[in-house]
Amino acid sequence: MASNHSQKVEAIADHATSDSDNSKVSAKSIVLSNEAKVEQANAYSLINPKNENTITVGTNDIAEAAHQIADQKAAAAKAAEEQAAAEKAAADQAAAEKAAQEQQAQAQAAQNAANAAAASAAPTSTAQTTQTTTNKGTFKLSFYDPAVLGSNMGYDGVAANLSVFPKGTRLKITLSDGTVWYRTVNDTGSFAAGNPNQLDVAMPNSQIPSAGVMSATVEVVG
């Protein structure tokens, strides 16, 4: 570059007027001065090369910040994805547990219904009370109305010989026509003392049989 520049300067100097030696001398001085300056500049450039600003990826602050933001966004997206997956898994588990509970409740209800149907279909057993009786033979029956005699003993009793049937003995009296009376010994009398095989049955006058005296089979209950 210094050579081209000096050639241009010399060309200008050569075209100067020949009659002025002083002008030639001045032109050549300018050329020499310019050449010195150019060469001095070239030497400085070789010793001190031009520093250029460069941006290296990973070391520049702006690029590093961009990378950090991108990493944070990626981490946030991954965390959100994991959170969504965990929530979905929890919801699926809750739905499965609810379905299992409903299925169990339905099975229990069906079992209860089946048990109820079986219970209603089963024959109802009627408890039979077995009474133990002891046959004491045939007794003569006579009748009386306690109310007429001024007694408040009622019509559930019978007067008997207390040596045969003590007070409180429960009697089953069966008539010849199959009619059954249950009476409790609660009284006695002079007739019973002389007739141990006779019972005096309490009964309203309106219900006393017209025959007046009857016979019946007598059993002790219990």
Structural features, described:
- Helix 1 (2-14) runs antiparallel to helix 2.
- This protein has a 6-stranded mixed β-barrel with strand order 1-5-2-4-3-6.
- The longest helix has 61 residues, at 61-121.
- The protein is rod-shaped.
- It contains 4 helices and 6 strands.
- Helices cover 48% and strands 19% of the residues.
- It has 222 residues and is α/β, with parallel strands linked by helices.
- The protein has helices at residues 2-14, 21-47, 61-121, 190-194; strands at 133-144, 157-159, 170-175, 180-187, 198-202, 214-221.
Q: Largest sheet, order of strands side by side? A: 1-5-2-4-3-6
Kindly provide the name of the CATH class of the largest domain.
Mainly Beta
CATH fold descriptor of the largest domain? Barwin-like endoglucanases
SSE sequence, one letter per element: HHHEEEEHEE
Overall number of structural domains: 3
Structural class: alpha/beta
Mean pLDDT across the residues is 77
What is the percent of helical residues?
Answer: 40-55%
Roughly what fraction of the amino acids lie in strands? 15-25%
Main β-sheet, in a few words? Answer: 6 strands, mixed, barrel
Poorly predicted regions are: 15-20
Radius of gyration: 71 Å
Coarse morphology: rod-shaped
N-to-C span: 152 Å
* Individual helix count: 4
CATH superfamily of the largest domain: RlpA-like domain
Proper CATH architecture of the largest domain = Beta Barrel
Tell me the total number of β-strands: 6
